[in-house]
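Troubleshooting: if your tokenizer reports a length mismatch, compare your output against this known-good record of 406 residues.
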Amino acid sequence: MAALPAIGLLLCAAATSQAQTPPSEVINNQIQLGDVFGTQVLDVVEVSEGVSAETSATGNNLIGSTEGADLNITSNQTMAGSTIASTTVNVTTDMGETSQINTSAIGNAVEAGTTQGTMVGVYTQIATAAPQVTASGMLEAETASAGDVGLATTATVNSVSLGLTNGSAGVLVNQTSAASVLADGGAIVGYVSGTADVSGMASGNSMSLVGTDSSAARAIVYQSNTAALTQASQFTAYGNAQTAATSATASGNVIAAVNEGVLLDLTSTQSNQSYVRAQAEGSSYEFGEGTATAYAVGNSTLAGNAGEAVVLENVQLNTGGGVEAIAGFSGTDGYDGYARATAVGNDVTGYACAACYGQMTIDSRQTNSADVGATSTTTIGSGRLINSTATAVGNNASFYVTRPGS
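Known-good structure output:
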């Protein structure tokens, strides 16, 4: 890995920060050696309004923000224990009009931001090979009815989330994971009169930056994932469902930086050796619309500015266990059935705003030496429309200048 730059090189000019006020200083050092787990079991016979369940487990967590003031953060987080979150909801008769079940497991987490200030940050996150990060969410309602149902299961080893509102940032993010990660679960429901949305998302290293209201950002991000497994798997079965959507997204390393302002400058280096697997399989005996969507990617980078300029220097290397996406939907009698599987070794997207006289400066290098496979299956007894797609790409790059909303 290249030598890390000095923090002074990262500082952007403040948008509207208080120049006369010294910045707030935060030094955060966290080491988690034991396991962290959250478990919830909810047994329901019948409710009218709905069922709500929230389960989360986090190893190390940092939250920092300022408003009208500058912020300097240096954070070091190390996770050497497992993080496990599990939710099981059992329903016998009726789960009501609207239900939401959320399960989240995170090894190391940072949320930081500023409004009308300048943020300077150095964030280091390390997860060793010993632990696992696992989120499991399950709805067991084989004999029950439901209106609208949402089931979201998320597992992330290292996560940094940054926000700017009329502010500026200069940040360095260094994420290293050797921990396997799994987002697993699904739903079994007798009858769904509305929409059932069941999703799973798993990622080794995740960094997001969102800037709004004339912000500017400069970010340098290093991500390395050497874990054995990065997997999201969701399985659903319905007797009768009006609309049923089952999705799974698995990412070895992911960076998503979007801004609205004069400049977004991103230098990203991603290396993935983990086997990345996304599997989404759904079935419904009778159905209005049934979909199963699986997306798996080794390395993913997005740099977009709804403003004047995007500068992106991107390096992506995907090796090791491979990338696989599996999607399947089956039904006996209904209308529309879809299955979509997409697997990508390396994926990068950059865009700027045409209406703002936007300009891109891009230097991108992608290398994939791992197998990439996508499998999609749709099986319908009687229906109106069947659609099945399977897409596998080794390296994918998309760069464009467009008008906002296009």
